[in-house]
Write a structure and sequence with these properties.
Layout: H1 2-34, E1 39-43, H2 47-50, H3 53-61, E2 66-71, E3 77-81, H4 84-92, E4 96-99, H5 104-116, E5 123-128, E6 133-138, H6 144-157, E7 161-165, E8 171-172, E9 179-182, E10 185-188, E11 191-194, E12 199-203, E13 213-215, E14 223-231, E15 237-242, E16 253-257, E17 260-263, E18 266-267, E19 275-280, E20 284-299, E21 302-310, E22 322-325, E23 328-339, E24 343-350, H7 351-358, E25 361-365, E26 387-389, H8 398-403, H9 409-445
Parallel strand pairs: 3-4, 6-7, 18-23
Antiparallel strand pairs: 1-25, 2-3, 5-6, 5-20, 8-23, 9-10, 11-12, 11-25, 12-15, 13-14, 14-15, 16-17, 17-26, 19-20, 19-22, 20-21, 21-24, 22-23, 23-24
Helix pairs in contact: 1-9
Keywords: Disulfide bond, Hydrolase, Membrane, Protease, Serine protease, Signal, Transmembrane, Transmembrane helix, Zymogen
GO molecular function: serine-type endopeptidase activity
Region (Disordered): 370-393
Length: 446
């Protein structure tokens, strides 16, 4: 009877061990399947692939028959046109046409005239496609005499140049996703990019001259990298080469605060009317809208052209931080006026131009498809993108990784325990057989 019970116990133990092996294998399989995708290295910007319907129509009709495009509140593309035939073609393509008086050629000519006038620090101008105007703004530092001279230039161009005074001061937001610090000041990390050999942070050019050394802490112990290939003024972008050469795990995620991030899946040009999000270490995640393109800003440090104008707020320290929509990279924070209490205007360096000029590629999530084109982020309403934890090499402890049900640790522990149980039952069975053998023959020979 006792031997029968032992056989039952051994049999149950072996069955439990086999079941543990199967369960552990299933856990490992599920954990591997649920791991966030590794970043795909090297999604280049392709102007042809990232354009929207409105942009395609403007390109096909030409600058003499159109005056820009935008998305309305319902997310439908709108194209400004100067003749009825162009309007009919836009409607046939499924977009909405708006008849305007001045073409894109007229708007760009007006901007060129303003650019050729004597430079006035604290002013900006941008192409307002929705109102078919060029908007000139002057901040609180612009004197009455300088503003009067600019007004005369605008009146000489025509009635489609609108003059506005704005509160605050147009300044770069130096001082922001995650903060990076150097003797030049404090800025924000933008997007991670690569040239195929090394990884870099794409950030604002005004953050520091080439050779600036950046740290993740204010004591100068945790070195991030060194600035190179900066362009400011004129443009506003630069690279920070990682000290270790690689961005590490989570390179495709931009921080939005509280340990959370947004997974970046592509890159595109911004559109007027587009809902966008901006992240910075000073003011966190903020939402706004693209109000104009091809903006020129006369900062005290110099003039920057080709910027994206938005109504989203920013504060000192947000410079270089990412602007995106639906996981699509759009720009890095340059500067602006106002703050996140009273609101203001913020300008962004387009990511597309920076990638082209610097000859680097955006590091994106594998869910972008890698080989496929980046989709346009031109929806009238938008979300930041798919969320993801902000991680990095060495962020989690070994114990945390082993006990996280999304990782392979628990499954491996179950498999190891089951193997130990199988080996133990075999050893116990062998020892019991040897003991029985000795007892039997000892009694026979005795």
């Amino acid at each position: 009877m006792r031997h029968a019970r032992r056989r039952v116990v051994r049999r149950v133990t072996r069955l439990a061990a086999v079941g543990g092996l199967l369960l552990g294998g299933a856990m490992v399989t599920q954990a591997v399947a649920s791991e966030p995708p590794d970043p795909t290295i090297g999604l280049p910007y392709s102007a042809g692939a990232a354009t929207s319907k409105g942009t395609d129509l403007v390109s096909s009709l030409g600058t003499s028959r159109t005056a820009g495009n935008w998305v309305d509140s319902a997310g439908k593309p709108v194209v400004a046109v100067t003749d009825e035939e162009a309007a009919a073609e836009v409607k046939r393509a499924g977009a909405r046409a708006k008849m305007v008086r001045h073409s894109m050629s007229d708007l760009k000519s007006a901007a060129a005239t303003l650019r050729s006038a004597p430079r006035v620090s604290g002013t900006s101008w941008a192409l307002d496609y929705k109102n078919n105007q060029v908007v000139v703004r002057g901040d609180s530092t612009v004197s009455a005499s300088d503003w009067s001279r600019m007004t005369e230039v605008a009146e000489g161009i025509g009635g489609f140049v609108r003059m506005e005074r704005t509160e605050g001061t147009f300044t770069p937001r130096l001082n922001g996703a995650l903060p990076i610090l150097s003797t030049a000041g404090r800025c924000s990390a933008g997007f991670n990019v690569t040239d195929g050999k090394s990884d870099y942070i794409l950030t604002a050019g005004h953050c520091g001259p080439d050779g600036s050394v950046w740290f993740a802490d204010d004591r100068g112990r945790d070195q991030v990298g060194t600035s190179l290939k900066g362009s400011f003024p004129g443009d506003d972008y630069s690279l920070v080469k990682y000290a270790g050469g690689r961005a590490g795990k989570g390179a495709e995620v931009v921080s939005v605060g509280d340990g959370e991030g947004v997974r970046i899946t592509g890159v595109a040009d911004a559109e007027v009317g587009q809902k966008i999000f901006r992240s910075g270490s000073t003011s966190g995640l903020r939402e706004g809208e693209v109000t104009a393109l091809n903006a020129t800003v006369n900062y005290p440090e110099g003039t920057v052209t080709g910027l994206i104008e938005t109504n989203v707020c920013a504060e000192p320290g947000d410079s270089g931080g990412p602007m995106f929509a639906d996981g699509i990279a759009l720009g890095v924070t340059s500067g602006g006026s106002g703050d996140c209490t009273a609101g203001g205007t913020t300008f962004f360096q387009p990511v597309t131009k920076a990638l082209t000029e610097l000859n680097v590629k955006l590091i994106v999530s594998k869910q972008a498809g890698g080989a496929g084109p980046a989709r346009s982020a031109s929806q009238g309403t938008a979300s930041p993108g798919s969320s993801a934890p902000v991680t990095g090499e060495g962020v989690s402890s070994l114990l945390t990784r082993l006990t996280d049900p999304r990782n392979v640790g628990p499954g491996m522990l179950v498999i190891a325990g089951s193997l130990v149980a199988l080996v133990a039952t075999r050893w116990i069975r062998a020892e019991q057989d040897r003991k029985a053998y000795r007892q039997y023959y000892s009694a026979t020979w005795g």
